[in-house]
Specification:
Number of helices: 11
Bound molecules: erythose-4-phosphate
Mean pLDDT: 97
Keywords: Cytoplasm, Pentose shunt, Schiff base, Transferase
Order of helices and strands: EHEHHEHEHEHEHHEHEHH
Largest sheet: 8 strands, parallel, barrel
CATH topology: TIM Barrel
Enzyme class: transferase
CATH superfamily: Aldolase class I
Number of domains: 1
Distance between the termini: 43 Å
CATH architecture: Alpha-Beta Barrel
CATH class: Alpha Beta
Strand order of the largest sheet: 1-2-3-4-5-6-7-8
Protein name: Probable transaldolase
InterPro entries: Aldolase_TIM, TAL/FSA, Transaldolase_3B, Transaldolase_3B/F6P_aldolase, Transaldolase_AS, TSA/FSA_arc/bac
Pfam family, one: TAL_FSA
Number of strands: 8
Shape: globular
Radius of gyration: 19 Å
Low-confidence stretches: none
Length: about 210
């Protein structure tokens, strides 16, 4: 499983990229709004930082508007992936953009049928939202597992991005259940690195070393 970072913050993207684990970036309108910068300028900056997929979301609700926005976003850099919501208009958009060889990430996926439809419309990625399902008492991981099994059984190449990740265990379970990618907030990426026994071990090694030197 690969890692994307779920942020529009350039400092976080640079730090994650320096770790050598970053295969892409996902943004959404809420994440961009936190940054108080021009959306297009920020996308330009992100695509200059990393060569992997950078998801940029459309905000129109009709296919015509989404397709126009998608073409404008894709013109920013070759590694832009256009993020499209899972609606009837969104599916038409995915079909139109994929006919133009523009990559798409269908977002706000909450069940396997939505993922299957998005894939058949030509989506490069589907993003099931784990945390938001868990928040309302559903099991987000079962949705990931079902999508992974269906895609595998039917030879579908669309990649599954485990999104709306709330804690490190979501990442482990998404990998075990067949997600190709996890898009992880920077705070959770840092949590994944640390373990109290690692810290304790370093402390002990250093104190033993210092006793002898
Ligand atoms: C994914 O592409 C979305 O940006 C994201 O994971 C949404 O997560 P949230 O539920 O924490 O807003």
């Amino acid at each position: 499983m690969k890692f994307f970072i779920d942020t529009a913050n350039i400092g976080e993207i640079r730090e994650a990229s320096a770790l050598g684990i970053l295969a892409g970036v996902t943004t959404n309108p809420s994440l961009v709004a936190k940054e108080d910068v021009s959306f297009h300028q920020r996308l330009q900056d992100i695509t200059e930082e990393i060569s992997g997929s950078v998801s940029a979301e459309v905000i129109s609700e009709d296919a015509e508007g989404m397709i126009e926005e998608g073409k404008e976003l894709a013109a920013i850099a070759p590694n832009i992936t256009v993020k499209v919501p899972m609606t009837l208009e969104g599916l038409k958009t995915v079909k139109a953009l994929s006919d133009l060889n523009i990559k798409t990430n269908v977002t706000l996926i909450f069940n396997a049928n939505q993922a299957l439809l998005a894939a058949r419309a030509g989506a490069s990625f589907v993003s099931p939202f784990l945390g938001r399902l868990d928040d309302i008492g559903h099991n987000g991981m079962e949705v990931i597992a079902a999508i992974a099994e269906i895609f595998d059984r039917h030879g579908i190449e669309t990649e599954i991005i485990a999104a709306s990740i709330r804690h490190p265990l979501h990442v482990t379970d998404a990998a075990l259940n067949g997600a190709h990618i996890a898009t992880v907030p920077f705070s959770i990426l840092k949590q994944m690195v640390s373990h109290p026994l690692t810290d304790k071990g370093i402390e002990k090694f250093l104190s033993d070393w210092n006793k002898q030197n």
